[in-house]
Design goal:
The chain has 263 residues and is mainly alpha-helical. It contains eleven helices and no strands. It starts with a helix and ends in an 11-residue tail after the last helix.
Length: 263
């Protein structure tokens, strides 16, 4: 099983290498490297599809969990593509990278951003590796629970994204902080439900032999979302653009876990 797992991961990484290379080339041509964010969902879903095609697990199990990853990944990538890339404005993070990278901007974006994300995406796809190697035809209760949690997470993330997009479309809300709907109970409900989805992936993985290793992914995602690339970077931008309005919102609203706002 060890050799098969390593072989599957290597095959998936090769596919992801070419996928991220293509996205890098497109980003270079359109002069907008924000397209790398589109690659995040595509990476995870593509890895799951590779495992579905090459894994020797029970075909129904492989199909269900590849479907989960694909629905999540393609929805997220489509949302990012329509709200960020099609606007023609490069994310502020990548504008700063351009200044930092200087005359090596294209090469460093290729290695430090696109390919790094591809490697990270392949590693974090561990929850799909073990079900793809599980030959059992019996459905484990954790797989059913994981699927139910996935539906909840997907619903929550989709609603949060939709509510924020609708808020931004109203010209009367320019410069204001979105505190309606799910955003009333969490400053980052999209990140919270994203994490719920990763928990569902971990539960699915746990139902297969050696699947406990897949629990690394929701743990890493929690750290990334709350401590490194998610909330910290987002809130720096929010404070710069909205100032005291965001400070007031921050003082009464939970950062991550949804909860009733302070009065």
């Amino acid at each position: 099983m060890y050799e098969k797992a390593v072989s599957l991961m290597f095959s998936a990484w090769v596919v992801i290498f070419f996928l991220m290379s293509l996205l890098w080339l497109i980003g270079k041509l359109i002069k907008n490297y924000s397209i790398v964010d589109v690659g995040w969902g595509l990476c995870i879903s593509t890895v799951a599809i590779v495992y579905f095609l090459l894994g020797d697990a029970f075909s129904v199990r492989k199909a269900i969990f590849a479907f989960m990853a694909t629905v999540w990944g393609w929805r997220l990538s489509y949302f990012i593509f329509t709200t960020r890339v099609l606007t023609g404005h490069e994310d502020a993070r990548y504008t700063e990278f351009r200044k930092e990278y200087g005359n090596q901007v294209d090469r460093k974006f290729f290695t430090n951003v696109f390919q790094f994300q591809g490697v990270l995406g392949t590693i974090l796809s561990l929850p799909f590796l073990f079900p793809a190697l599980n030959p059992s035809i019996q459905t484990h209760p954790l797989e059913v629970i994981g699927l139910c949690v996935f539906v909840i997470g997907l619903w929550g993330e989709s609603v949060a994204d939709f509510q924020l997009a609708e808020f931004k479309l109203d010209p009367a809300n320019k410069g204001k902080v979105c505190d309606a709907g799910l955003w009333r109970y969490s400053r980052h409900p999209n990140y919270f439900f994203e994490w719920v989805i990763w928990i569902s992936f971990g539960l699915v993985s746990l139902a297969s032999p050696w699947g406990w290793i897949g629990l690394i992914s929701p743990l890493v995602m929690f750290i990334l979302l709350t401590k490194i690339t998610g909330i910290p970077l987002n809130e720096i931008g929010q404070l710069k653009s909205k100032g005291n309005l965001y400070l007031e919102y921050k003082s009464r609203t939970s950062a991550f876990f949804p909860w009733f706002p302070k009065k």
